[in-house]
Write a structure and sequence with these properties.
It is a single chain. The protein is α/β, with parallel strands linked by helices. The strands form 3 sheets. It has a 6-stranded parallel beta sheet, sandwiched between helices. The chain has helices at about 10-20, 25-30, 50-70, 75-85, 115-125, 140-155, 180-185, 190-200, 200-210, 240-250, 275-285, 305-315; strands at about 5, 35-40, 40-45, 100-105, 110, 130-135, 160-165, 215-220, 230-235, 255-260, 290-295. The chain contains 12 helices and 11 strands. The protein is elongated, with a radius of gyration of 21 Å.
Length: about 325
């Protein structure tokens, strides 16, 4: 039986990949159905099957990427990667994550969906120009929307990225906050900035901002505009009113992608004001050109504990 070996650059990396008492290697063995063993900084499998060899390399590449980018690496992520990288035994619950990877030109970043619903969301981005992503915090909806927007921009498919969200938190009024418009709105868009910095790098993001390639604006500033050749992300959409949502959706122009993200269960609107997101999801379902993807607690990838918290709240709904 021939061996297929991958040489890792650091011995310390090997220990983290293998896990406690080689627990991660055992999971990989179960997933691929072959023997996995480690010698020094080399991890090998015993097989001549080229398809299994490719899967093995892809899994190790993904695990290595996650470890290098996530200081708080959780061994549960190995199971998540195995569940979503390739189906074990052609299980209907698995998928080929390499097909749904968001590859940003220039080798800056490759973003992989970590759950089946996240893969559906990436597929929706590719299929339709208007996509709703509804789900709890940490389910990856905003990060994937940003990654796809950066990919479109760096591929020269669009000319601009526009980030917006309604400002309703804590009853603050932008007019009374210090600084210019960007200073006032930036704190509300911090999660979008963080995701963009991960996908493209902070220096590139700053340069694009300086050249007005990335625009930030409160939702109210969208009124009266037609948005052409752009990727437009409306975040925290559960805090829009029905009127605001209609206004936003009708801003779409030529060659524009609109990604609307939000969590129906987390609205900050005053009591009695219906959410524009909930209304739009009900009103627009069934229109073929519009994709609606629902994510849930099983899609939370921030940490195993956050996943358990979200699922506890979901299970506790009356």
């Amino acid at each position: 039986m021939s061996e297929y070996t991958i040489v890792l650059p650091e011995t310390a990396l090997v220990a983290r990949i293998c896990g406690t008492n080689d627990s991660n290697l055992k999971l990989i063995e179960e997933n691929l159905g072959v023997t996995v063993f480690c010698t020094g900084n080399e991890i090998s499998i015993e097989t001549e099957d080229q398809e299994i060899q490719q899967k093995f390399k892809f899994i190790l590449d993904r695990i290595t990427d996650e470890i290098s980018e996530n200081p708080a690496w959780d061994e549960d992520m190995v199971q998540s990667i195995l569940n979503t990288s390739f189906a074990a035994g052609n299980s209907a619950q698995g998928f080929d994550a390499s097909r749904f990877a968001i590859s940003i030109p220039g080798g800056i970043k490759k973003v992989y969906p970590k759950t089946l619903n996240q893969a559906k969301l990436v597929e929706a981005f590719r299929t339709n120009d208007l996509v709703f992503a509804e789900g709890p915090a940490g389910s990856g909806k905003t990060f994937l929307a940003v990654a796809e927007s950066v990919r479109l921009l760096m591929s020269h498919r669009i000319n601009k990225i526009i980030l917006t969200r309604p400002v309703v938190e804590a009853g603050e009024n932008l007019g009374f906050l210090p600084g210019d418009l960007q200073d006032k709105i930036s704190p509300y868009l911090r999660p979008l900035y963080d995701a963009m910095n991960v996908c493209a790098g902070s220096s590139i993001v700053r340069k694009m901002q300086d050249n007005d390639i990335i625009e930030i604006a409160p939702l109210a500033y969208m009124r009266g505009r037609t948005l052409d050749n752009a990727a437009v992300i409306l975040d925290e959409a559960q805090n829009t009113t029905r009127e605001q949502m209609k206004m936003f959706l009708t801003r779409m122009g030529e060659n524009t992608k609109m990604f609307i993200t939000g969590d129906e269960s987390q609205t900050d609107l005053r009591r009695g004001i219906p959410s524009g997101l909930a209304h739009a999801l009900q009103l627009l379902q069934g229109i073929p050109e519009i994709s609606i993807v629902h994510l849930d607690g099983s899609d939370v990838v921030r940490s195993a504990l956050v996943k358990k918290i979200v699922q506890a709240y979901e299970n506790g709904k009356e």
